[in-house]
Amino acid sequence: MISYLSVSILWCRIMGLLWYSDDNVYNWKRKLYKFYTGLIIFMEITMSLTEFIALFGSFNDAEEFANASFLLVTHICGCLKMINIIVKQNVISKLLSTLLDNNLQPRDDNETKILSIDGGRIRKVTIKYNFLVTFTISYFIISSLIRDIPLHQFPFSCTLPQILSTGKGYWVGYFYQIIAYYNIANIHIAFDILLYGLLMINCTHIKLLKYRISKINKYIEKMSYSKYNNNKKQIEYYYLKDCTKLQIFIYQFAKLLNGTFTYSIFIQYFVNSIAICSSAFQLTYTDTFSKEFGTLIVYIICMTLQIYLYCIFGENISSESDTLTFSLDEWTSLSINGKKSLIIMMLRSLKPIKYTCGYIVTLSLDAFTSILKLSYSIFNLLHQ
């Protein structure tokens, strides 16, 4: 399963988020990579500070405030995502290493098909989301090159030292902003496609468990007639043990994954509310045929899709785990102890897996509806 996340892991490494733990990597390479990570952190945090300072001069004007906060909140959120992955290096490595567990390997053609289909979906989401965010930031940059350079303006609202605002220093400040925003966009991509992939893999785990439980009777009957396995109770014991271990793994994986990223998702949830409403507010006084209008439309689509994917994957996992109880009905050929084991599994599955934002908001389609309502409320507040 870890092969489905190869693009996500590579993207995180390119952005300096996942350090190499391989013993074959030379010590000087580790130090150089950490220096590279520190350089990106410094660039993004200083960029956020310059935008934050610019925000103080716009409190009395709603239009200027919307312009100043337009991308600031997204930039700050990206910085927090970056710190989240760096701080949780060991936990993320543990999550990824668990995907190599032998219990997750396919046992027959149907399981191989389940993994293949879901693996294809992970790759499609990764590629499409990557393309959308890359297109969005590229659209921003190209529009800025056409619009801002002739006027000697910066692409984003910020307060830079005087030396970087005039003469040749302008070009340093301009391309500093471009590089910083290009990096933060790629940090968002790296974080999001990694988390999307892990959420989809957790859903795949549940599908595997449901399939294995549904085949208990057939498996036991098949192995009971084998000349090498004629002890039916022993076969039943090992098969149910295998299913129980998978169920425990699923809940532990979900708990560890949710605990690792829950606060970043929580921040993203409310940041997107602000970003969507600020962009919508800017649309109200932007010319429909201007370059800025197209930029805002693309940005709103990107922000909306970003939080929608979190919510829909959380909804899918909850739905799959909630229907697990309905697949635990293979009683006919089991012994008394086997039936007791299935009852215990059924009781555990009565509490479906739920991913949360900061342990407050549950990721679901209802949460997505709520964020749209919150964005609309903030939009009305800005108008007043």
TrEMBL record:
Which InterPro entries does the entry link to?
7tm6_olfct_rcpt (IPR004117)
Residue spans crossing the bilayer: 35-59, 65-87, 129-146, 174-201, 261-281, 293-313
Keyword check for Signal: no
Q: State the Gene Ontology terms under molecular function.
A: odorant binding; olfactory receptor activity
**How does the entry describe its membrane topology?**
Multi-pass membrane protein
Q: Which protein is depicted?
A: Odorant receptor
Sorted alphabetically, which Pfam families does this protein's record hold? 7tm_6 (PF02949)
Q: Name one GO biological process term.
A: signal transduction
Name where it's found. Answer: Cell membrane
Q: Which organism is it from?
A: Aphidius gifuensis
Major subcellular site: membrane
Q: What is the similarity comment for this entry?
A: Belongs to the insect chemoreceptor superfamily. Heteromeric odorant receptor channel (TC 1.A.69) family.
**Key words of the record:** Cell membrane, Membrane, Olfaction, Receptor, Sensory transduction, Transducer, Transmembrane, Transmembrane helix
Which Gene Ontology terms of cellular component type are present? plasma membrane
Keyword Transmembrane attached: yes
Query: Superkingdom of this entry's organism?
Result: Eukaryota
